[in-house]
Amino acid sequence: MPQIINGKEISAQIKEELKEKVAAMKKEGISVCLAVIQVGDDPASSVYVGNKKKACAYIGIASLSYELPEETTQEELLALIDKLNKQEDVDGILVQLPVPEHIDEDAVIRAIAPEKDVDGFHPQSMGALCIGQRGFVSCTPAGIIQLLKRSGIEIAGKECVVIGRSNIVGKPMALLLLRENGTVTVAHSRTKDLKEVTKRADILVAAVGKPRMITREYIKEGAVVIDVGIHRNENNKLCGDVDYDDVAPVCSAITPVPGGVGPMTIAMLMNNCVESAALKR
Ligand code: GUN
């Protein structure tokens, strides 16, 4: 059977490391603070925001919480971001996405000062990643790199295939694997003969958005399989983009859902907040 990559354990380890780091920073008079903004009361967003605030409290990061009504105008939201950009004691600003339809998401992302862009979504952060300069990196792909490294999986020289080209996962994932000297292919909904492409992968990252689409016909024997998807199946049980039971016997390592990639996102968000505070001084 394959190595099961335990994201719950690895994220807990990262959070412990951060907790110690934050305690040490406090002794030197450096505090860490994340501002979290939610517009509207989408239940899934409320759960994510709640989990982020809980993680902050655990690590010793202060959090400022802004729960704005659905009717908030774009001008009001941008004014709040501007105020937080200027606020010395705020190290990170996170606007939970999606925002209501009457607000331009790109304008919101652009409004966050790049030095406080702990989500790594700002065009400057994405551009910096692209040309190998310093900047915050999107948390889910950054978490996947940590999963691989901390599981002893070598990336350099490997054939890496990313399925999905979103700004939040697919594109930054491809750039990070490239930075680690992988040979990277990005596949997507218009890729011809997807199986032929994914069968080349030593490391396959599935961010497709379709429950259990990736079966063993897509996998090279002995590949490492990273599953970014999270869905509910017909029995209301969580599942990923990968058909785990079908794929597990033919791969060398695999992330489960839940407990694989998911827990890493918040851990990396916390890491970005601590880094922002440390860099400021
Ligand atoms: N909505 C879903 N995932 C994310 C995320 O990583 N950051 C933000 N800001 N919103 C999200």
Question: Can you offer a commentary on this structure?
Answer:
By secondary structure, the protein is α/β, with parallel strands linked by helices. Helix 2 (43-59) crosses helix 10 (262-280) and helix 6 (139-150) crosses helix 10 (262-280). The chain is built from ten helices and eleven strands. It has a six-stranded parallel sheet with strand order 1-11-8-7-5-6. The chain has a three-stranded parallel sheet with strand order 3-2-4, sandwiched between helices. Strands 9-10 form a two-stranded antiparallel sheet. The protein folds into two domains: 29-115, 3-Layer(aba) Sandwich (Rossmann fold); 139-262, NAD(P)-binding Rossmann-like Domain (Rossmann fold), CATH 3.40.50.720. Residues 94-97, 119, 139, 265 line the site of guanine.
Question: Notable features of this structure?
Answer:
6-stranded parallel sheet, Rossmann fold, binds guanine, single chain, 281 residues, 3-stranded parallel sheet, 2 domains, alpha/beta
The CATH architecture of the largest domain can be given as 3-Layer(aba) Sandwich
Number of domains: 2
- SSE pattern, N- to C-terminal: EHEHEHEHHHEHEHEEEEHEH
How would you state the average pLDDT, rounded? 98
Alpha plus pi helix count: 10
Task: Compute the CA-based radius of gyration.
Answer: 19 Å
Shape, please? Answer: globular
Strand line-up in the sheet with most strands: 1-11-8-7-5-6
Q: State which percent range the strand residues make up.
A: 15-25%
Helix fraction by DSSP (H/I, runs of at least 4): 40-55%
